[in-house]
């Protein structure tokens, strides 16, 4: 257990220092020590995202889901990568699974709203972004992106209100 905590601490330190190559090495080492730690696969997958290894990131987040099918963050992260690769429907499926696991996760609603907006489903995006805001009233990016969806639908006053609120929260 002490070795696992030490590796976990090193993994987090490397991540916070933006040393993704170093974080990747530490995660690889931690996985050799404990290949059943879903959190380490998520950390390695996130490092791979930042390094541009999207297929590797999907593999790691999928492995985390295999280890712990109720780990909502693994679905959110895998969904993010799918959307980055242009698989918006696959991303939306993963975000929906994350929401079923944790219906109070504002990030899952936010990311699903972004994916819906990119598919042209601005009304669906507004619904999800509104839910993200209900769960976290200081979610500046949710206000900003909801404003963008409202703008695309011609609701200019609603867009301005959301953009203004976003700036108030995060000037």
Would you mind describing this structure in some detail?
There is one protein chain. By secondary structure, this protein is mainly alpha-helical. The protein is 80% helix and 0% strand.
**How large a portion of the residues is in β-strands, by DSSP E?**
under 5%
Low-confidence parts, pLDDT < 50 over ≥5 residues? 1-17
Briefly note the structural class of the backbone: mainly alpha
- Put simply, the count of helices is 10
Radius of gyration: 18 Å
Q: Tell the overall outline.
A: elongated
Describe the protein's topology.
Layout: H1 2-16, H2 20-33, H3 38-50, H4 54-67, H5 72-84, H6 88-101, H7 106-118, H8 122-135, H9 140-152, H10 156-169
Q: Could you name the key traits of this structure?
A:
171 residues
Question: How do you describe this structure in short?
Answer:
This protein is mainly α and 171 residues long. 80% of the residues lie in helices and 0% in strands.
């Amino acid at each position: 257990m002490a070795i696992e905590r030490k590796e976990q601490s090193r993994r987090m330190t490397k991540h916070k220092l933006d040393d993704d190559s170093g974080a990747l090495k530490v995660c690889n080492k931690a996985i050799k020590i404990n290949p059943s730690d879903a959190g380490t696969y998520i950390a390695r997958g996130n490092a791979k995202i930042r390094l541009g290894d999207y297929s590797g990131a999907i593999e790691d987040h999928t492995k985390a889901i295999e280890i712990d099918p109720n780990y909502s963050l693994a679905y959110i992260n895998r969904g993010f990568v799918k959307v980055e690769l242009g698989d918006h429907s696959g991303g939306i499926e993963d975000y929906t699974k994350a929401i079923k696991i944790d219906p109070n996760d504002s990030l899952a609603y936010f990311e699903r709203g972004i994916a819906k907006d990119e598919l042209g489903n601005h009304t669906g995006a507004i619904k999800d972004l509104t839910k993200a805001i209900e769960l976290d009233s200081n979610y500046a990016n949710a206000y900003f992106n909801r404003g963008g969806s409202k703008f695309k639908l011609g609701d200019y006053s609603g867009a301005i209100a959301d953009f203004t609120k976003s700036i108030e929260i995060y000037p």
